[in-house]
């Protein structure tokens, strides 16, 4: 490829895309999902995961899960040494099927929320979170 | 019992029957993940709160399983229905067997 | 070609970051008190700044929100701990802080004036030094280690009851010589990187330093709960960290140098609201 200005920019941009791609789900993530769903198919639908696009520090990342009909929601951090984060079970007196917490992310990665709905089906939502490195050595 | 563990909860003092209330909870706890090493290179053993529950007059609101990826000083926010006057009971379960409890009364009015 | 691509990539990366300028936002504490996070620079700083800004304006949305509510602010856990030690009798005199001072709220207005000259002792005192003077002289208790848990918790608690009041340290009269020493330190380059406080926080605030935003380095929010280490951090410990990062030998928390630097840096924020315990990354 001849290096023209345009090509160089394209190259730079594609390198950025590759570098910015979230880490693919690991085997342990798949295992955790399978254990939760019992191998059932996971679709899309009644589950929302809210997480910052850029987290200022991976030690404390605020997230929220929300659904209309979930009985249980599992959160996984696919790029952590162990992906499990938390599982929320909603009881009879839960006014909504939503909850917020603060989590640890080992680096830039996908956070996944999988909900078991009242009808027994499973849905999932994914959020890519960029974890920044601090100014002076963290 | 892990040292310096102190639960805090925020619940309105009053609600109308059938109202939805927002509850915030925070417990001071290191949440040692089991992934860190000390200065000698030995793994610091995991020591976390592994479960948190909230009940109202004996009925479950939420039951949460915590893993080491929950941040230091675990924080939760959720919503509950208040069908009648009574008390919220919050319980945190520590890896070391300790159980921390907090109760908050709520009046109807 | 590799080098060229690298350079271009760096440009793309830099350009892809949004500006590191301070945000346009208002800090309202507990939906009640509006804090001053931006105000006219004090007279002594007029050559350097028109306006002084709290570090709060340089943080992300989630971090800013965490500080705006006392329940969401994890720093308040440590304030509660200090409230307990405030009421605890210690030492040979059978006294607690509360024995002399009543409630913690009675200390509102104290934090904004520290570091402060103590005429009787003939020395410049930080708030932690004053607390320790009370402990050793009035309570007959042991002094707390500088910036250590109990001391930093108490500083945070004393700060919390002054939130919303403007920082107002005196820099003239008996304070002047210490203030001059602090100013000298602020502009002195240290370490292998040969950086002074001013190189980052005066010349380059509002720019990125790696993936982070450089603030003006104000200390009106100290003690600070950092998301990084999930505990309260004192201003002297922050100074130590900064100087260490210039690859220099540092001074110790509680040293004469850091007392002077605290006075000087505090004076650069005169007029900003006391925020401690604030939340930063």
What can you tell me about this protein's structure?
The complex is a heterotrimer of chains A (138), B (109) and C (281). With 138 residues, chain A is an alpha+beta fold. Chain A has 2 helices and 9 strands; from the N terminus they run ααβββββββββ. Chain A is 20% helix and 42% strand. The termini of chain A are far apart. Helix content of chain B is 0%, strand content 53%. A 5-stranded mixed sheet of chain B has the order 2-8-7-4-5, with no helix packed on it. In chain B, strand 7 and strand 8 form a beta hairpin. In chain C, strand 7 and strand 8 form a beta hairpin. In chain C, helix 3 packs across helix 6 and helix 7 packs across helix 10.
Radius of gyration of chain C, CA atoms, in whole angstroms? 20 Å
Note the gap between the termini of chain B.
Answer: 39 Å
Cα distance, first to last residue of chain C? Answer: 38 Å
Tell me about the largest β-sheet of chain C.
3 strands, mixed
The geometry of chain B reads as: elongated
Helix content class of chain B:
under 10%
Radius of gyration of chain B: 16 Å
Helix segment tally of chain C: 10
- Uncertain spans of chain C: 1-18
> Mean of the pLDDT scores of chain C?
92
Could you give the order of the helices and strands of chain C? HEEEEHHHEEHHHHEEEEHHE
Task: Please render the helix and strand layout as text.
The complex is a heterotrimer of chains A (138), B (109) and C (281).
Chain A: H1 5-20, H2 27-37, E1 42-43, E2 48-50, E3 54-55, E4 61-67, E5 70-77, E6 84-90, E7 94-103, E8 109-117, E9 122-131
Parallel strand pairs in A: 1-9, 3-9
Antiparallel strand pairs in A: 2-4, 4-7, 5-6, 5-8, 8-9
Chain B: E1 7-10, E2 14-15, E3 19-27, E4 49-56, E5 59-66, E6 75-82, E7 86-94, E8 99-108
Parallel strand pairs in B: 2-8
Antiparallel strand pairs in B: 1-3, 3-6, 4-5, 4-7, 7-8
Chain C: H1 2-16, E1 28-29, E2 33-34, E3 38-40, E4 51-53, H2 61-68, H3 75-86, H4 97-101, E5 116-118, E6 123-125, H5 127-139, H6 149-160, H7 176-186, H8 197-201, E7 208-209, E8 212-213, E9 224-226, E10 231-233, H9 235-245, H10 256-268, E11 278-280
Parallel strand pairs in C: 9-11
Antiparallel strand pairs in C: 1-2, 3-4, 5-6, 7-8, 9-10
Helix pairs in contact in C: 3-6, 5-6, 7-10
């Amino acid at each position: 490829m001849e290096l023209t200005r345009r090509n160089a920019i394209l190259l730079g941009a594609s390198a950025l895309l590759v570098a910015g791609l979230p880490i693919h789900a690991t085997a342990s993530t798949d295992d955790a999902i399978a254990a939760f769903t019992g191998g059932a198919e996971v679709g899309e639908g009644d589950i929302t995961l809210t997480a910052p696009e850029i987290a200022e520090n991976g030690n404390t990342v605020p997230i929220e899960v929300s659904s209309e009909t979930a009985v249980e929601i599992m959160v996984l951090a696919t790029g952590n040494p162990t992906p499990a984060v938390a599982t929320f079970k909603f009881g009879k007196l839960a006014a909504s099927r939503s909850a917020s917490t603060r989590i640890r992310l080992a680096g830039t990665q996908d956070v996944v929320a999988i909900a078991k709905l009242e009808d027994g089906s499973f849905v999932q939502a994914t959020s890519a979170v960029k974890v920044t490195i601090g100014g002076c050595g963290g | 019992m892990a040292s310096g563990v102190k639960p805090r909860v925020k619940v309105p003092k009053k609600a109308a029957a059938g109202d939805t209330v927002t509850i915030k909870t925070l417990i001071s706890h290191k949440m040692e993940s089991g992934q860190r090493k000390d200065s000698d290179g030995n793994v610091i053993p995991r020591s976390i709160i592994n479960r948190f529950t909230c009940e109202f007059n004996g009925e479950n609101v939420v039951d949460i399983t915590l893993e080491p990826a929950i941040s230091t000083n675990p924080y939760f926010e959720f919503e509950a229905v208040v069908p009648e006057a009574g008390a919220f009971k919050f319980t945190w379960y520590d890896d070391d067997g300790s159980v921390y409890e907090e109760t908050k009364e709520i009046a109807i009015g | 070609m590799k080098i060229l691509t690298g350079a271009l990539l760096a440009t793309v990366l830099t350009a892809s970051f949004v500006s590191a300028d301070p945000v346009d936002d208002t800090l309202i504490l507990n939906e009640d008190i509006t804090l001053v996070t931006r105000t006219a620079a004090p007279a002594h700083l007029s050559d350097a700044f028109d306006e002084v800004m709290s570090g709060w304006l340089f943080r992300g949305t989630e971090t800013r929100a965490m500080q705006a509510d006392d329940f969401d602010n994890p720093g308040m856990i440590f304030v509660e701990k200090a409230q307990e030690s405030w009421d605890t009798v210690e030492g040979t005199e059978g006294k607690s802080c509360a024995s002399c001072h009543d409630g913690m709220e009675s200390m509102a207005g104290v934090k904004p004036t520290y570091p402060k000259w103590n005429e009787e002792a003939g020395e410049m005192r930080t708030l932690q030094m004053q607390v320790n003077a009370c402990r050793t002289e009035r309570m007959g208790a042991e002094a707390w280690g500088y910036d250590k848990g109990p001391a930093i918790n108490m500083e945070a608690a004393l700060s919390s009851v002054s939130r919303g009041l403007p920082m107002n340290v005196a820099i003239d009269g008996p304070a002047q010589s210490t203030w001059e020493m602090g100013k000298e330190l602020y502009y002195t380059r240290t370490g292998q990187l040969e950086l002074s406080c001013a190189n980052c926080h005066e010349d380059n605030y509002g720019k990125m330093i790696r993936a982070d935003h450089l603030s003006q380095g104000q200390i009106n929010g100290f003690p600070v709960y950092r998301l990084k280490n999930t505990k309260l951090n004192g201003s002297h410990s922050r100074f130590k960290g900064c100087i260490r990062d210039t690859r220099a030998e540092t001074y110790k928390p509680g040293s004469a140098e850091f007392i002077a630097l605290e006075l000087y840096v505090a004076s650069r924020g005169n007029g900003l609201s006391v925020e401690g315990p604030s939340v930063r990354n």
